[in-house]
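step: validate -> pass
step: tokenize input -> pass
step: predict -> running
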Amino acid sequence: MQLNDFLKAGGPKIRKALEQHLGISKSYLSQLATGRAAISPSRCIVIETFTDGKVSRADMRPSDWAEIWPDYKQKNNTTAQEDTD
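step: predict -> pass
step: emit ->
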């Protein structure tokens, strides 16, 4: 699940709780959720934990999650796909 979708589904209380948990502003969370700002690997772990895995680190960093966390196994393989080239 994408972070933006999680936040929309959760409403303002969830958004505010995540802002406080991360120690960031509403506008910066919006930038992270919409992809205007990259989510750091350390924040990915915090967000994944906060969302109980609904938003995975692979969802937040689809192009490089396997390089950052080589031992990480996704619960489902809907976001990250192996290269077939």
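step: describe -> The mean pLDDT is 90.
step: cleanup -> pass
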